[in-house]
Automatic annotation (TrEMBL):
One of its GO terms (cellular component) is cytosol. Gene3D superfamilies: Leucine Dehydrogenase, chain A, domain 1, NAD(P)-binding Rossmann-like Domain. Keywords: Hydrolase, Multifunctional enzyme, NADP, One-carbon metabolism, Oxidoreductase. One of its GO terms (biological process) is tetrahydrofolate interconversion. This is Methenyltetrahydrofolate cyclohydrolase. Residues 133-189 form the Tetrahydrofolate dehydrogenase/cyclohydrolase NAD(P)-binding domain. Residues 13-112 form the Tetrahydrofolate dehydrogenase/cyclohydrolase catalytic domain. Pathway: One-carbon metabolism; tetrahydrofolate interconversion. Homodimer.
């Protein structure tokens, strides 16, 4: 079975699981500003929600919106029992502190896995976060689908972003890989290459640190 068939199978299982729910699962999404790429991304997430039967509650705010207004919306989603998950579309304007907004989301609704509680649970052994970022989860799942061994292997991870690089490294450690983290301040990556069996490029400027 290819990746597409696997995806369709998961979609169908999710629909069946929630087909008799009196209330559909719901995702609250918050976007601030008018970045076209961010809007397209939010709209794509909305279509993905519709595909599996999740109700998407999008809240779009102007670039001039204050941090207090965004926090009020986060708290409203937190308090709403019909909202199961909350997603903050990044980046936020420079006038809004991303850390404050991310920390305001309930860990139990933090679908991006960015809240310190979820990050801490992911980092610790024998702990399970409520959520882990979807891209890192997808990377590990692709390895599993292709039956690529992880335990005992040396993995080099280029990138340490909170949303991708760091979670990938932590997921690999949970699967007993030996992880070498490289980033923009790493002077040379090539010396690590001969001994690694897994190599992840999770940065935009790869050539700059080779």
């Amino acid at each position: 079975r290819g990746p597409h068939a696997n995806h369709r199978g998961k979609v169908n299982r999710f629909k069946q699981l929630h087909s008799h729910d009196r209330q559909r699962p719901a995702l609250g999404m918050i976007m601030v500003g008018d970045r076209q790429d961010s809007r397209l991304y939010v709209e794509a997430k909305g279509r993905a929600c519709a595909e599996v039967g999740i109700r998407a509650e999008n809240r779009f705010f102007a670039q001039s919106t204050t941090q207090a207004e965004i926090l009020r919306q986060v708290h409203a989603f937190n308090a709403d029992p019909t909202i199961d998950g909350i997603l903050i579309q990044m980046p936020l304007p420079a006038t809004i502190d991303e850390k404050t907004v991310v920390d305001a989301v309930l860990p139990t609704k933090d679908v991006d896995g960015l809240h310190p509680y979820n990050v801490g649970e992911l980092a610790m052994r024998r702990r399970t976060p409520y959520f882990t970022a979807c891209t890192p989860e997808g990377i590990v799942e692709m390895l599993d689908q292709e039956a690529v061994p992880i335990a005992g292997r040396v993995a080099v991870v280029l990138g340490r972003s909170d949303l991708v690089g760091n979670p990938v490294g932590m997921l690999l450690r949970k699967r007993h890989a030996t992880v070498i983290s490289c980033h923009s301040q790493t002077t040379q990556v090539l010396p690590f290459y001969p001994n690694c069996r897994l190599f992840f490029v999770l940065i935009r400027k790869y050539r700059s640190i080779v």
